[in-house]
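SAMPLE LOG
Freezer: B-3
Tube label: C17
Construct: single chain, 220 aa
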Amino acid sequence: MKRELILTEDGSSSVYIPEMDETYHSRHGAIQEARHVFIEQGLRRLDQPYVKIFEMGFGTGLNALLSAIEAEKLTMNIDYVGIEAFPVEKKIYNALNYTSLIDGECDAMFATIHNVDWEFPAKINEYFTLTKHAVKVEDYVFEKESFDVVYYDAFGPRVQSELWSVDVLNKMYEALKQGGFLVTYCAQGQFKRNLKAVGFEVQRLPGPPGKREMTLAVKC
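STRUCTURE (predicted):
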């Protein structure tokens, strides 16, 4: 799979896949999208000392980096699990410019996020533990009712509709604790109908810059 580094409108890097005509983040801004969808409308909804997060689509590691930074700010212990079927190559992640645009000294943290071994838990900072799995979601075995939040950051339904299906979303539902929730940039109608079909309560939220809305789905 050929990958190309691009710059989005907020100056932050993303990755473009020509054969899919798909980017890893919004072209309107990778960092501002990730902050809005997964931090502001995701992690910051929680007020508890310990949080377990599942990320669908580890990608460039941006969501993990922002969450690790937030863990330190909030003194919140985060156990973060991310899966990625096709991990980004070293030459790509070394060229990403996130740490130059994010306030604070996070170069070492971002390097650690990418350099720790896959399949094993690793301490990224005092409050943040990361486990990366190189696996397809269809093959990943979830522990039921174990996660507080799902960051759903897979490629969009246009290019990988199977990742937004009832079968996959049911796995997310079962993996979440009661009262846990899924957040995603996607607001496609069929996707929201699929969420409702597996039992989620679906809410429409304002989207990041350049996108009218995003989705919050709660396991009630």
